[in-house]
Amino acid sequence: xxxxxxxxxxxxxxxxxxxxxxxxxxxxxxxxxxxxxxxxxxxxxxxxxxxxxxxxxxxxxxxxxxxxxxxxxxxxxxxxxxxxxxxxxxxxxxxxxxxxxxxxxxxxxxxxxxxxxxxxxxxxxxxxxxxxxxxxxxxxxxxxxxxxxxxxxxxxxxxxxxxxxxxxxxxxxxxxxxxxxxxxxxxxxxxxxxxxxxxxxxxxxxxxxxxxxxxxxxxxxxxxxxxxxxxxxxxxxxxxxxxxxxxxxxxxxxxxxxxxxxxxxxxxxxxxxxxxxxxxxxxxxx
Length: 286
Ligand code: NAD
Prior knowledge:
Elements: E1 4-5, H1 8-24, E2 31-37, H2 41-56, E3 60-66, H3 72-84, E4 90-93, H4 103-109, H5 121-128, H6 137-148, E5 157-161, H7 168-177, E6 181-185, H8 192-198, E7 201-204, E8 222-225, E9 229-230, E10 236-237, H9 242-245, E11 251-252, H10 260-278
Parallel strand pairs: 1-11, 2-3, 2-4, 5-6, 5-7, 7-8, 8-11
Antiparallel strand pairs: 9-10
Helix pairs in contact: 1-10, 2-10, 6-7, 6-10
């Protein structure tokens, strides 16, 4: 048996098109402000891609570039100005921030109604409580991929490997809200292969290249690979040994072309959601 490959590029393109179609019906242009401090090469590429995707969806994207020696006070003042700017519906401060700036202080300064990354404690709390909120983009993208592939988490045993605030914990909260029976594994988990073998849905988010092996996977299980790792030979690898696992799994995401493209698509969706909520637009009829 060979697994169904879940095509994240196609699902993301469809979601971006849905967002663009909804934006086109609005009598205002949603605004997204991305703040980039310093010139970390990976962050610069991410921010450029976010800008382009937002523009293509009809969202007014603005990137504020600040020098690497920006003080925390200056960054907080910038966030305050964006909070007060009524044309800005979504604010994203690109992480990681340079040393000397406390990312927590910056995240907590963002207006929760404009927190399109879903990292503000108010939004984290709402998600943990199962309330509607702006949820983090990458795990939201995973939920969209599962839905697009026709895989229901309801009642399923789901294993999330990784407990970061950006991926693992919100992933577990979203799966729980979708009625999965959720286990969170991490670097101190005693028998990770055993936990994995019990799972019907495995979400790998560890940053450990090709750690999840075929003999960890229950036949027919769904395997979602969040990892993006650059190997010494320049190749991109996920956290899952794709070639061997696809022979056992029922459905699997590739890297690249799986979860990766969903993150920006969900950022656009969150920006639209924030804009509609802030400006009191009634929900779409469809
Ligand atoms: P992180 O380093 O913050 O967290 C990694 C987690 O994995 C930790 O909770 C740790 O306990 C766990 N872990 C590490 N080694 C382990 C092991 N041997 N066994 C079990 N658990 C282990 O990383 P993150 O920010 O959550 O990102 C995880 C991966 O996802 C990375 O490869 C990252 O590049 C990728 N990522 C992708 C996207 C995307 O858009 N697709 C977005 C964010 C992160």
